[in-house]
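Deviations from the work plan: none for this task. Representative record:
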Amino acid sequence: MSEHTHPDYWKIYKWLLVLFAVSVLGPWLFPDVKVIVLLTAFGIAVVKALLVAANFMHLNVERKYIWHLFLICLVFLFVLFAAVAPDVLNNEGHNWKGDDFTGVSRPESHHESTHAAATTSEKTKPTLEENVNAPKPVPAVEPEPEKVPSKEVALVVPKAQPQKPAPSRETTKKPTQVDPSLIAAGKALFQTKICFTCHQVDPKIPSPAGSALKAPGFIGKFWGTEREVHVGVLGGPIEKITMNEAYFLESVEKPMAKILKGSIPGMAPLPTTLEERKALMAYVRSLSE
Amino acid sequence: MTQKKKTGTRKAPAGHTSHHEESFWSKYVFSTNHFVIALQYTITGVFMALIGGYMAYVFRMQLAFPGEAVPGFGIVGPGEYNNMVTNHGTIMIFWVAMPVLIAGFGNFCIPLMIGADDMVFPRLNRLSYQIFLLSCVVIIASQFVPGGGFGGAWTAYPPLSSEAGYSLTKWGQTLWLLGVALEFVAFLMGGINFITTTMNARVKGMKMYDIPIVVWFIVIASILFMLSVGPLIAGAVMLLLDQFHVTGFYNPALGGEPLLWQHLFWFFGHPEVYVVLLPAIGVCADIIPVFARKKLFAYKIVLWTAIATGALSFVVWAHHQFVAGIDPRMAHIFTVTTLLISIPIAEMVFVYIATLYGGSIEFKTPMLWALAFIAEFLIGGCTGIYLGSTGTDIYFHDTYFVVAHFHFTFVPISIIAVFAGITYWFPKASGRMLNETLGKIHFWGTVIPFTFMFLAMFPLGMAGQHRRTSDYTIFPELAGWQDWRVIITYCLLIMIAFQFVFFWNVIWSLKSGKKAEKNPWRANTLEWLVPNVPPHGNFTDGFPEVYRGPYEYSTPGRKEDYWPQNVPD
Amino acid sequence: MSFEVPVATTRSSTGIPTGRLGMWWVVASEVVIFGGLIVCYLLFRLGNDGWGGEASFTIVPAGALNTFVLLTSSYFVVKAHKLIGEGDREEAFKYLWYTIACAGIFLLVKTYEYTTEITEMMHHHTNEDGHMIGTFPVFWGFYFAATGLHALHVIGGAVVIGIVSFGVKKGENLQRVEYVGIYWHFVDAVWIFLFPLFYIAK
């Protein structure tokens, strides 16, 4: 195996250069004819690679099973592509429509064929401004993958917000006498009791589990507003209640007592003391406008 | 068939004349000798197993006694719990199963069993261990950086693994990824060595079908690893760039796709389980004929089913993603292929049982371990069918049913088969026999608690107990099962306690064990020809020549009930 | 203390010399690594028409020059292999160093490209901590990942060719010229595919 006749390497090299020239000229001369671009750019790439493999790497005189080895590699790569393509190439589904999103918008583009890109850039441009400050992605493993992350509304969980903020009998003024250390304690508890996983408090940071369960967020003006709840169990009688102290304290202690209309029951009755519930309430209330 | 003109002068091969002084460092630390490297890999792997086992102890104590401080650790909050679970899984697969089964057994067995004096690329071998050792340091270091170790599960799905704001372990997530990447590089290098050595360095007369099954299976495992890890290495580079917020490959807000990581990970992840299964089942294939004194029932079938399993393993991966929102048509296809892959593996088990049938079985410790492998793996394999079928998987996914299933497969692989191999080759590697009584005590003390422990998890999973949760007493519908969790934890403690018997056995036997003869098990394969504690160059009395396959036991017409490969008639 | 080559390395049950067989397996593992990256790129590219816009910003003349340089370097290294077969070690040594020179030119051109592209293509925005960070759109992520990984392999390959050349000078292990050539041809073949994927197809 150590001795073998060498093919004419210089001739092969010249052919490689010719093919290379064609592969550059083809797309340059006919940029809009897709077939020519594909044939010259990629078809020729395949031919060049085969020339290099067969002649320079001496695969044409090597044992056959080295070819088989590479063939197997390519087959597996093709399997990977074929099986992943239905997921990644999908741009819309039953409940969502994707954005032709490249990740950035550019004011001008050099090429004719990027005219499409320019229009999509414009489409995404205004939403990108909002997105610019919120690079946090929407999690993928949700029942309904929301593929339009650039709209700010997707990051918030709005479905549980009440439709009409009716004036309530309770005072809705921000409690100015509340002890700031109580609010701070409540804020810490909000993390350690993992409330944040469902209840969104920051428009920029989504709560993945909460959006799946359609949990109410604590954003904007929510304290003192009216909402409809099922009493006892999902599907139970509907009652109109106010988001107030009593309701909040009961919800934390017994989350299954009242289920917000439109939400899926899923809040775990984590053990809390009365002091902890009061601290949480002070914190949550302080978030309301 | 050596090199001819083109090589110019070549350094003189070993075993020829020039002796050279070897210092402690060159002999034991920076050695290129396959036996030393095998010991290095095995000892490192066992050490990492202690760390992985400790992590299991910590999170099982939390599960059994939620909120109470764990002796030897402290309070286990949700973050610590996730960290322990993640690193337990990662370490056990990448730093215990692979190094011991592939690199440890591979480095020890392959040159000896094919009649070679070393691996074909000894310096690459040494480099692979050094990179592996570095990866151990990195993954352990990830526990001690600000923020603590990564807690996003060994599957590391983004955005949990790419956003420090979610994982809360900014440095841990990067070190975890780097540790895994370095381990991949080490095993790519090792794999090249194993494959090339087995293909090329066989002694005269050893044809393809005369190679012992364990050697074949380590080679096939290396090929599987090599072909499947490529896309994940690409994906890991992409994840690393995402972690530094330079790119958004998995970030929809920047044009990326999180589901892609899942596909890349499992495209590797599923062949990976066969990467660790094959060496383990191969060890059993070599032990069972020896202790049944009977020829392996169907060598070629075993070999070709392994190759079929390997090939099929590349088209089953999305059964890990049935509920991730993949295209349902893909789910149909993957259900079919997943159920198909159970066939060749079942075939292998049938061959082993057929080998036992009519055999003259000796219940020595290695045989006990090999038999336990078959029994326990059978449970693991059968329960996999419920997970491979989309319908039932929709319920079982992410429950303890899955945990029980993969422990009934992984523990036989990484613990039972490892002990089988260690107890079998211990005489050759050390020159001493292990104590049989202690070995049997260790065996029963491991297998019984293990079986109870994970059998109990099947009903827990069916009851709806989800994975990766640190405290189930807060869920009213699951709190009633708390007694079961306590029993499971006690089983683990018992199992851990019995491992001391093994370490005591090894230490005592090394010092005062019965001196072993060259071939105490009366086996056929070539490694039993070399002196115990194989010297540098292995076959110092000359290389043997091979005349037949390795499984000629109880051949009719022969006086002896075994027929070593190197004996002409 | 010199390293002793084991007998195992000199055997060849398959008929292929051990070093070359090992190199083929190295190339196979690299094919799936780069192949995986390219598959991911294709998945994104084919799914999003808007990417053409980003691709228009790659510097085609630089890419074309690099393709020419790598093709030529492949020719040089296989010529060195032929010269070894003819026994001409001095010429072979020179051609190995021409190959390394081509690698150097390739890396210089890539450096020029990177310095312009990294600054211009980065998209600056403030993140949630209020810091200004720069991220790249996904096309550029793939571009830097693929060409960067490739460039690392070019550097590694050049270093190994250098080491092999010193062996050639001493007249030792001449078979390694062929083996390192196989690796180098693979590196060239990868670029043959990266060039149309990132530069030409707009």
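Chain B has one domain: 28-116+150-519.
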